[in-house]
Amino acid sequence: MPVAYQSPSRHRDLAAHARRCTIGRAQRDDRATHRTAVRVETIRATRTIVLSYEADFKRATKLTVEDGDDHGSRLVVTEHYPVIGDDKDPRVAEVDRSLIPWVDAIRRHLLGRERWGWLPGWRWWNERFLPGMVLRQRRIVRMIVWVSLIEFVVFLFVAAIFWLERQRG
Q1: pLDDT tens, residue by residue, 104-135
Q2: What's the burial of 9, exposed, middle or buried (CB within 10 Å: 0-12/13-18/19+)?
Q3: How far apart are CA 51 and CA 41, in angstroms?
Q4: At a CB cut-off of 8 Å and minimum separation 6, what does 107 contact?
């Protein structure tokens, strides 16, 4: 389920640096949008962000940055739900299953940033230009760029052959 950030009403809790906002969650079958008040707490001492949901089945999402091995860090995402004793309870269907693909997408982005971030324009392309597009548009743009790049390489190859033949003859 895609989550859209809607109308923040910011007021600070000085002790916890908390924010209140409203999250709208669009349903896949075009039902009414479900709105939930979310409280965001930042705990700097433990490098943790806690998203507490007031009127949702999911009670909280906790994001913690832990020290990793020799290089880097580890992001730990924990979701808190109420205890359900019966597996046939209809509330089990409300459990958000998008966490694993979401974390996998973040991991792929960070690994790509580590690998290709040194290239000029890579960050602009992946963090500013592409996110403004729908997935289908991103695929089309990538295909156009790759085809153009291959065309240019073939053109340079043909031009080099022409130049070498002209030098020989």
Answers
A1: 888 898 899 999 999 999 999 988 998 889 99
A2: exposed
A3: 7
A4: none
Rg for the chain (alpha carbons), in Å? 24
- Cβ neighbors of 4 (< 8 A, separation 6 or more) are 23, 24, 25, 26
SS3 101: helix
Q: Do the Cβ atoms of 20 and 39 come closer than 8 Å?
A: yes
Kindly report the backbone phi and psi dihedral angles of residue 124, in degrees, each rounded to the nearest multiple of 5, phi listed first.
Answer: -60, -45
3-state SS class at 65: strand
Q: Tokens 């809790």 belong to which residue? A: 13
Nearest residue to 58 (alpha-carbon basis) of 41, 38, 74, 73: 38
- Nearest Cα neighbor of 21 from 7, 42, 33 is 7
pLDDT tens string 10-52: 333 333 344 444 445 444 444 545 567 888 888 888 889 998 8
Instruction: Assess contact for 63 and 48: CB atoms under 8 A.
Output: yes
Query: Tokens 């709105």 sit at which residue?
Result: 35
pLDDT of 20: 45
pTM: 0.54
Report the candidate in 26, 27, 55 with the shortest Cα–Cα distance to residue 39. Answer: 55
Q: What tokens appear for 130 in the block?
A: 């592409």
